[in-house]
Amino acid sequence: MIYQNKLLLAVVLLGGLSGCNNSGFVTPPTGSLGNNLNSTAAEQHPRFSSNGRYLVFASDRHGKRSIFLYDRQSNRLVSLPGLNLPGSVQDQPDISADGRYLVYVSEQQGIGDIFVYDRLSFQAENITGNLLAQVRNPTISGDGRFIAFERNRSGQWDLEIYDRGLNVELSLPPSGSNAPASATPDN
Questions:
Q1: Are 143 and 96 in contact (CB under 8 A)?
Q2: CB count, 10 Å around CB of 113?
Q3: What is the CA radius of gyration of the chain?
Q4: pLDDT of the chain along its 187 residues, tens only?
Q5: What global pTM score does this model have?
Q6: 3-state secondary structure of 46
Q7: Cβ contacts of 34-37, under 8 Å, gap ≥ 24
């Protein structure tokens, strides 16, 4: 009886393991860790652009928390000049529909603020610098106009919506395009 139970358990375990396959996974191979999706550091907070081409995430690579952008079409990290500043921590990213705008939390002076980074101008804008509250978990609308985040003014976390205004260039890809024209991959 004990032998039959062990045999049955072995058959069930082997059957379960054979059912585990990589069908549907498209994670690129690790290879050299210089310009790949995964590294030996912690990778967190992944968010896709609407067409699935770009994946933004936070990582502890290079000894500090930074924002990275991975282009699935070229299987490379994309350069983000001016985003990951020395002596600061960047975390909790999100991305607009076509990947032009990134929103994230940055602790540049010991306090977290919400920033919007434009991949065309390579400029980051602090949108919560004058807000007397803790902030976290930003998200950006597909067109890049609206940003929602959590704020804590007096011990309770509430939602805040920030409107970048009517004059903001919207993040809508032209037909047949997947990315902002001047966005180029890292070498």
A1: yes
A2: 19
A3: 21
A4: 555 555 444 444 444 444 555 567 666 655 444 567 666 666 778 899 998 999 999 998 878 899 999 998 988 999 999 999 888 999 999 999 999 999 999 998 778 999 999 999 999 999 999 998 999 999 999 999 999 999 998 889 999 999 999 999 988 764 554 545 444 444 3
A5: 0.76
A6: strand
A7: 35/76, 35/77, 35/186, 36/77, 37/70, 37/75, 37/77
Task: List residues bridging with 71 in a β-sheet.
Answer: 54, 76
Q: How far lies 161's CA from each of 86, 94, 102, 104, 150, in Å?
A: 29, 15, 16, 14, 9
Of residues 123, 130, 103, 99, the one with CA closest to residue 114: 103
Q: What does the alpha-carbon distance between residue 97 and residue 48 come to, in Å, rounded to a whole number?
A: 8
Token reading at 133: 């509250």
Amino acid symbol at 62 = H
